[in-house]
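Figure 2 data, in text form.
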Amino acid sequence: MTYTPPETPPEEMTEYSLSTLLTPLDPPVEPSDFDDFWRASFEELGTGAVAWEVTQEHPETPTHRIAEIRFHSSADEAAVAYVMLPHAADVTRRGLVVGHGYGGRTGPDIERVASDTAAIFPVAPGTHIGTSSRFPASPDEHVLAGIEHRDTYSHRFSAADIWRAATVLLEMAPSAAGALDFSGGSFGGGIGALALPWDGRFR
């Protein structure tokens, strides 16, 4: 059987011309106080001590101890994180904070952590099933929660909890100071892009 192309071209499902679609849009105007807002947010929510406690020990790996912790979120509620610490503290050469996508997180990504790395996997406010929050867990709702004002927007607190998770990790593994990295894709990557420019502890 041979293919016979249609006599008429397929309908274009757009009202825009090809030349319009190929012309880049002008970048949006950046708020004049963007940097000031985020620096102030870091000073307010990302500095100082962070209360935390171990709530559960998880099965260890040949190289790491694994624990589930609760820490005080920037949203003024309990937050969850998973921490991996090398069995021998003196081998720690690096710290790693790992964000997550909108699929949430129920444990650490063990395969992403090298033997000389102390890592923390914070769960963004509202996205942990077992923790109550004023932010909804549904991605479609979470991405809009508090968006009426930048001070109340969910993403502000998700970014601030990256700072707080770093504080907890560096308290648990002080030798990681000066070699602190971040990893995150999808939602976690975007939150990392918001958080990292203002926190000089990250390389």
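Caption note: The chain is about 25% helix and 20% strand.
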